[in-house]
Each structure stands twice: as C-alpha cells, then as structure tokens.
Prior knowledge:
The structure holds 2 protein chains of 2 kinds.
Chain A: E1 4-7, E2 10-14, E3 19-25, E4 32-37, E5 43-49, E6 52-56, E7 59-64, E8 69-74, E9 83-89, E10 92-93, E11 97-102
Parallel strand pairs in A: 2-11
Antiparallel strand pairs in A: 1-3, 3-8, 4-5, 4-9, 6-7, 7-8, 9-10, 9-11
Chain B: E1 5-7, E2 10-13, E3 19-24, E4 31-37, E5 43-50, E6 53-56, E7 65-68, E8 75-79, E9 88-95, E10 108-109, E11 113-117
Parallel strand pairs in B: 2-11
Antiparallel strand pairs in B: 1-3, 3-8, 4-5, 4-9, 5-6, 7-8, 9-10, 9-11
Amino acid sequence: KNEVEQSPQNLTAQEGEFITINCSYSVGISALHWLQQHPGGGIVSLFMLSSGKKKHGRLIATINIQEKHSSLHITASHPRDSAVYICAVSLYFGTGTSLTVIP
Amino acid sequence: NAGVMQNPRHLVRRRGQEARLRCSPMKGHSHVYWYRQLPEEGLKFMVYLQKENIIDESGMPKERFSAEFPKEGPSILRIQQVVRGDSAAYFCASSPRPSGGANTGELFFGEGSRLTVL
Lengths: 103, 118
C-alpha cells in the first residue's frame, strides 16, 4: 500500500464543471502539498496546508488531519486546468490525477 | 528573485558515461530535495540535503548515484556509469525550512532535467 493514495487516477470534465480530487495518506504529517504538473513537465506548488482550508482563485484545498484526507477542488473548470495534480505528504507523493477539461 | 534553476534541461548520455545535474535553489533557501520521475510514473523522493550535509538519502539508489550541496555553488546530482533505466526527469526543489517536519517550508520546484540514456 502506498503512503499517499490519490483518486481518481484520470478525470475528464466538461468546461465549467466542478472538480474534486482526493488524497488519503497513512504517514504522519505537518503539512500536505498539492502540486500541478503541466504537459511540458514543469511542477508548480499550488498549496501547502496543515489544517482547514485554503483558497486561491478557482482552486480550493481542504485537509482533515484526523481522517488523513485532503481534497483539491476546482470551480468553473477550464481547459487550461488540464494537467496532472499531485498530492505530496512529507517525502511521499501520490501517483497523480490526470485531469483533462474539454471545451 | 529567480526561482529554482536546474541545468541542463536536457542531457543525453551513452551507457557507461557520467551524468551531472545541477540545481541552484532560490535565494535564501538552504534546503534542497531531489526527485526522480520515471516515464509514465509518479515522482519519487531521492535525497534531501542541507548546506554541506546529506540529511536523508533513503530514496537514492545505493550504487552509482551521489548528491552534494557544497557551501558555495549549486547542488549536484551525479550518476555514474549510466544505464538506460536511469532515463527520467530529475526535479529539484528548494525550501527555506525543512519540508516534512515541524514548521515545514513550502517547496519551490525547478523545471527539471531530462536525462536520456542511449
């Protein structure tokens, strides 16, 4: 069993849809990262959170420390959101969720 | 304020040669992490360094791979006698504080170095 599990692995959505990506982890943490990797390969850190909820534009990240679970939400999705979203906890990474948003 | 700089962006080596990948962290960051992303796979932690010290190398292959972060200059990931299985994207990230422990620091990633072994 992986230390960090993400679901779904692949996700296709219509433009404008509300998207949720889930992350469950088994290791102890002080913070969880959500990363975005575009087809070109570069990685951007979207959020670092250790409790509660953070919002940046159309992106929202939540974490429940007791349940060892985090979610990344994208509101009003857009084709430019198409990327791989990766959950990282401590030194462990999820395998990523590949999101495709169709116009 | 430049971000994390990695070079080369692309490197081609023949089997048996050496590969050296460089990572200059963001200004003020003394914590550097190296990750490997094999084709069609997720990111895997390799090594965590703080200036002049290797803190955690639990993800590093035991042979042929080494890393350093000298007092002056970039961090270097060195792969000796490369094999085809070393072909991957190698990412470096830096942080102003340790990432993963108490008071964890945010990670900033470089663009990656893509190694191809022929």
